[in-house]
Predict the structure of Endonuclease/exonuclease/phosphatase domain-containing protein.
Amino acid sequence: MTRTTEVRLLTFNALMRGDVRARLRALGVVLEQSSYDVVCLQEVLVRRQAALVRRLARHYGHHAWSGSLLLEGGLVLLSRRPIRTARFVRYPRTGPPRPEYLMRKGVQLAVVDTPAGPLAITNTHLSANRDGDWSPANRYTRVARAELDHLAGELAGLDPALPVVAVGDFNVPRDAAALTGFLARTGLTDVLAGDTAPTYRPTPRWPAPPAFDHVLIRPAPGRELSAEARIVLRDAVTLPGGRRGYLSDHYGVEALLSLGAG
């Protein structure tokens, strides 16, 4: 008989500029009041910012990030469940020189314990496409393909007995050939496939942005994995001092994972 465990996960690009500390304080309060088991954040650039969120979201007793001052990749993982292992792998530098190099883009690979057994979680933030053009010949599409190829290699190196959840800000639309090719190579499934809602907050200059933030899953032999997902953190919140504001220029993606023990 298969025992099923539910794991609630959030992926969220926390935005590295503009009222950062105030927004992270508000985010910490939101997380503390939430029922997430695992939270994957992107664009948390400084160690003290990660420590602030963790201090406010105190029920997340386990965390992973790397870097003594600046966080590698700007990636943070908070978990209510024990983290067995965690490491960061940097993507090779490719494409046009850009300030983004300072963020040391890469992937955070972790294994989290659940009552149904260990679960591999990867948290990533790929390079931005500064042309807004995801056609195959675009210079930034070539960057995305190189980073996705590197990520695919890291996924191939994981223990095949582990089910996998790959999340983050991929900076690639859901229907882009670079992403669909990556899914085909890795055996991952997009939990929100076919959903046309944006995960980047629309603006007057960009009224219909695509979805950049994804939850991708892959079961393992004898370890079932399914998921439902929805877009969250859309609304303004009360920031310190009483003013209203948004947590980020992105929305979050929440996933309810159903994990079978086999």
Q: What stands out?
A: The chain has four helices and 14 strands. The chain has one domain: 4-260.
